[in-house]
Amino acid sequence: MKVVSQILVRIPLILWAFIVIFPLIWMFMGAFKSNAEIFTSPWSFPTDFSFTNFERAWNDYNIGRAFLNSFFVTVLGSFLTIILSIPTAYALERVRSKFGEVLINVYLASMMIPSVLGWIPLFFLLMKLNLLDNLWALSLVYAISHVPFTIFILVGFIGNIPKELEEAAVVDGMSPYGILFKIVTPLIKTGIITVTILNAISYWNEFFMALILLQTESKNTLGVAMNLLKIDAQYDSAWGVLFAGLCIAVIPVIIFYSFFQRHIVKGMTEGAIK
Fold first, then answer.
1. Is 74:203 a contact under the CB 8 Å cutoff?
2. 81 φ, ψ (degrees, to nearest 5)
3. What is the distance of C-alpha 149 from the center of its chain?
4. Cα→Cα distances 35→38, 41, 244, Å
5. ABC transmembrane type-1 domain location, by residue (predicted)?
């Protein structure tokens, strides 16, 4: 009975893994095929593993430039999010007051508001500030939009740190900023890594805000560039190039998540215990 129960448990997991992995494998195979191979033998392995489709996607369809743009806004947005969130989370956790409680509730409530409601006001605000079609401004928008979630995660980690450590540092003459950056920040490293990974993946995959706020093709991120490539593929019959572009967009996320998935699980577990 124990063996049977184990088999019954694993069968749905195996089926789910197949459903998730098979489209990825099919996409990778299609990236090395010509259009003729894609239509005549869509389920077979490519006859020739040529990187022509990757070269065309990177150079002819602006995927290379979009890749660099996405990398820029992802790195800068993740950095700004952490810089803005760590001091705020520390102040909200350690400085207990009625105003602080209200502010925490405001941050939590903002996470429940659909982001689509802010797109039109944000567009006109950036237009008045002459910040449309600007990757730096897009990175700042990404960062601010994820500050409430980041604070929500980091507050749990900071709450696990014994206050006696900070009191001992005060006795030794350390300033509040020294306590924050030399004692508290290293102790919540796991939480910082966890939330940075989650934010970075979200920034890399983001589409709608980049579509609305960017207007020049040379500044498009990967999501917008892939949408344009999808439209072009319908008229140019560049289906192999489309698969190659998808691979370029997906592979960094898969590699990144594969290396840091343990940090995510560890970080979410530690942050949940207080």
1. yes
2. -60, -45
3. 13
4. 5, 10, 12
5. 67-260
Q: Extract the tokens encoding 261.
A: 């998935």
The lowest-confidence range among 1-15, 108-122, 155-169, 235-249 is 1-15
CA–CA distance, 9 with 21 (Å, rounded to integer) = 19
CB 197 within 8 A of CB 252: no
Predicted local distance difference test score (pLDDT) of residue 232: 87
- Between residues 63 and 176, the one the model is more confident about: 63
Instruction: Report how far residue 22's alpha carbon sits from residue 24's, in angstroms, rounded to the nearest whole number.
Output: 5
Q: What is the largest CA-CA distance in the chain?
A: 76
Give me the amino acid identity at 91: A
Read off the amino acid at residue 265: V
CA angle centred on 104, ends 98 and 107, rounded to 5° = 145
Q: Per residue in 157-205, pLDDT tens? A: 888 888 888 888 888 888 888 888 888 999 898 889 889 999 999 999 9
Among 244, 223, 262, 232, CA closest to 74: 223
